[in-house]
Description:
This protein has 275 residues and is mainly alpha-helical.
Amino acid sequence: MSNRSITVIExxxxxxxxxxxxxWQYRELLYFLAWRDIKVRYKQSFLGIAWAIxxxxxxxxxxxxxxxxxxxxxxxxxxxxxxxxxxxxxxTYFSRALGTSTLSLVANSPLLTKIYTPRAILPISGSLAALxxxxxxxxxxxxxxxxxxxxPNWGFLWMLPFCLxxxxxxxxxxxxxSAINVRYRDIGQIVPFVIQIWFFLTPIVYPLSVLGEKWRxxxxxxxxxxxxxxxxxxxxxxxxxPLGGAAASLLIVAFLLVSGSYYFRRMESSFADVV
Length: 275
């Protein structure tokens, strides 16, 4: 008599969260997909990984020339160019991870229709692949900070929790948007526009101090506000975000992850039929 076990795969019968244990079992596939995305991105690229530095650096130069003298940095204690570049580093990672995650299911449709894998691996792998660019740009950022007198120390390790929060925010949004994009393909066209609007609603090239007091709380409902200001605090003399704003941002990140997990799992059974 055979001792082979049979695994029966059934769609969820109700609202269920993504199975984290199953994701861990498929971790090697997750690493492979992330590495594949990295190689595809820089295949036949003239500058290669240097794009990870050029994009935030050139943007920083443009904004410094345009807004450097217009925006008052009184009380911020750091030069405007450094202020902008730090924000652009973490934002560039987030926007790239979110864009890749949104298109991940449609771009990998054979994996949905021919074999079984935990579908959530696909949007998560997009966020992991973008981490390579983040590491390269952070290394360049540390060199730039040294030129301004901010030398690396153990306090710089506080960057890591904020990088993790940026990744979790991208994953939470990516779970929602990738699942919706399977059914409504124009989501993939809308997301770049939403990211552009989101950019200007985040204190990346301007400090919150230029806003009126009554508007600041609304900005703390944007989790990237806490992440970017916290990132600045970790590597410079920038003040730490207020605890109320930090709590609001963390709750939003948790909501995006939990709700995205449940919604993704709910829609997962229809992916192969619709894609």
